[in-house]
Amino acid sequence: MGRTDRASRTVAASPAAVYRALTDRDAVESWLPPDGMRGRVEHWDPRPGGGFRMELTYLDPTGAPGKSGDATDVVEVGFAELVPDERVVHRAEFVADDPSFAGTMTMTWQLTPTAAGTQVTVTADDVPPGIDQQDHEVGIASSLAHLAAAVEG
């Protein structure tokens, strides 16, 4: 069993709006990449057992070598669970030769209604040891900020 990283944010939007943003290709492509990266979804199959492949490119690769290439991280994501307005569970595997990035990381996006909108909690289980914990938690928080900007609009 690997490490668990978490981040949470209250989003001023309904769980239904957040869920739509978690399950829409164009939305995911725009909000999921953390600060300093851009993303491109290469295929999309939003159903349990389906998934997507995303290529993340560093805007400034200096000092940030990619896991999959000089300036890229490629991740294969399977949809393990899709519960409308409640939860999305991803099983993510990085395409990398370095064994410290191997394995399947499970990312659970839990949506909890609140008076202010939706509490979105991301729990990443079995995080590969090659991913720095502080960097990962900052990255998740950045993605949550982009998600909020996309749905609060």
UniProtKB/TrEMBL annotation:
Where does the signal peptide begin and end? none
Tell me which SUPFAM superfamilies the record gives.
Bet v1-like
* Pfam entry (one): AHSA1
Activator of Hsp90 ATPase homologue 1/2-like C-terminal domain spans which residues? 13-152
Q: Which InterPro entries match?
A: ASHA1/2-like_C (IPR013538), START-like_dom_sf (IPR023393)
**What is the similarity comment for this entry?**
Belongs to the AHA1 family.
Q: What protein name applies here? A: SRPBCC family protein
Which organism is the protein's source? Actinomycetospora aurantiaca
